[in-house]
Amino acid sequence: MTTQRYLAVVKFLSIALALWWLATIPVLAQAPDPPKAKQSEAAPQASPAPSPHATQSASTASHRYQPDRFAGKAGTYYPLVWGVDSLSVKSVESGELIRFSYRVVDEKKAEIVNDKRSEPELIDPKAGVKLVVPSLEKVGKLRQGGPPVAGKSYWMAFSNKGGLVKRGDHVTIVIGQFRAEGLVVD
Description:
The chain is built from three helices and nine strands, in the order H-H-H-E-E-E-E-E-E-E-E-E. It is an alpha+beta fold. The chain has a domain at 71-184: Immunoglobulin-like (Sandwich). It is globular, with a radius of gyration of 22 Å. It starts with a helix and ends with a strand.
């Protein structure tokens, strides 16, 4: 096997592995707490005293800071105007791909964001680049398709060859008329 052919096979397998990994990421949903059994008011049950270590880890876990990505008007703008929320941009595959994901809340409004005919772009003014979704010979575009379904998350991957877009950069996603500005790369 020639070196060029070997490198082509390795590149194809790494892209296939990246696609498999992106497709199998579970959608993280916060499930409501299970209902607690009612205790009788006449006979309250005494609970055993927790150990100091258990108390410390439980309090640490319940007070972790989870920032709201879109505070104020931006938090209501995307769901009301475009029918999507939970926008996120992450650097994956050692920075060779930038993954943009979103969740559909209104199917009709989200048709523009999910339209396969429009070419998505990721613009990073700091790096001075405009990234596109690559199209692979046997796989096609690195993005999910089909009609949008409310409650379902969708993703697309932008080629970041050379790692020009870094974690912490503020980027803009443009898909047809849809424009999301100031998204931070995780």
